[in-house]
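Folding Task

Wanted — backbone structure
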Amino acid sequence: MYENVVVSADWLAERLDEVRVIDVRDAWEFDGIGHVPGAANVPFAEFRSEAGDEGMLPGRETWESLLSTAGVGPDDDVVAYDDTHGVFAARFLVTAELYGHPPERLHLLDGDFSAWNREHETTGESSSPAATDYAVREPEHSPLVDYETVRDALGDDGTVIVDTRDPAEYAEGHLPGAVNLDWRELVDDETRGLKPESELRGILETAGIAPDGRVLLYCNTARRISHTYVVLRSLGYADVGFYEGSLTEWTERGGPVETA
């Protein structure tokens, strides 16, 4: 189990000089609203591409260029945030893991930018981090699973397939046997951060998602599962598969779908 997968604003404030902070909001928000001092801006749209690698991964060269410009070193501790409960920042972190950044050095700011903004200083000044020569590496263990793996897991009593979309989407069509866990169920709307750990574990247990079982995650385009993946990792779930193709690839390939 990795420590400090999800970190507080106070945790970050104590380590601002020791970590690379990535703000994935749009540039106008980064500049106009303000940001965490020293943060680099890597807007969400810049690391999502249908012309990149599998699913919506941006491609190795694009990722290397983005992280080099942002001043990220190959073994830096990275803290990412957005202003949308962490779902876009989580996507950045998962992308980093899939491209070989050490997962124990990837952190999500709990409560998004608002958590920082409530208690800590912000700035409108653009930072100019020293560029690095970031290089993608093969991860020691990749959570990626492909269409065939998910297909073969249908009906496997030892695997829980989790649909992280909202209930209406789930009702319209989902993978056979999948359980529905809207990613927003894990977020406290008031704090914008994660619900308390005991509550998170209760929600997951009720959904039949056990920490000692195999879990496969999907949504439409692998954005929402990024947040759920980070939450499960923070809770010590060891066997979590990340279906990058998600329902987009599943339906394109004629995978079976059932309705509620």
Q: What stands out?
A: The two ends are 35 Å apart (CA to CA). The longest strand covers residues 159-163. The beta strands are 6-7, 20-23, 40-41, 78-81, 106-109, 144-145, 159-163, 179-180, 214-218, 240-243. The chain has a mean pLDDT of 96.
